[in-house]
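Input/output pair, single chain:
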Amino acid sequence: MRSFRRLLPLLALPLVIVACDSNDDEDDKRCYSRSSSGQACFEVTESVVGTGATPDRARADSVFVRYVGRIQGSAEFDRGAFGFRLREGEVIPGFLYGVGGYTFDDGTTVAPMKVGGKRLVKIPAELAYGEREIRNQQGFVVIPRNSDLEFDIELTGVKPRTTSN
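Output:
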């Protein structure tokens, strides 16, 4: 009987390993919205939670970011620092949602970043450039049609928009 009591925890161990083995569960926790095809997902993974100011999309605050962009996890296509206002049309929708937050039709909400925060944002093609291809000044295609994109983004500053602007 004593040996059975010693074995009981060991018998439960394989069940715990099987239950925790699935990466799909973790991916679904970061998946805020699936593309219409169901193949791609808008994902946000926090690497550093910021402690500074939070931008306000309703007020269309200006934000300043550093980022590295990649096409479907491949080589970088762009790297830079820039500022933009948190409103439709300033940047691709997925980038806007990844920085400024968003509530999807199903009620899932992406919180806005805080200054000092860093996150990986994976964007399905329909929240990126969709059917459009993006070319550089020499005419070479930099981002092909229907490309899923991902960005490592750091929020470096927020300039609140006053009502007089």
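The chain has a mean pLDDT of 81. The beta strands are 31-34, 41-48, 62-71, 76-85, 102-103, 109-110, 118-123, 134-135, 141-143, 149-159.
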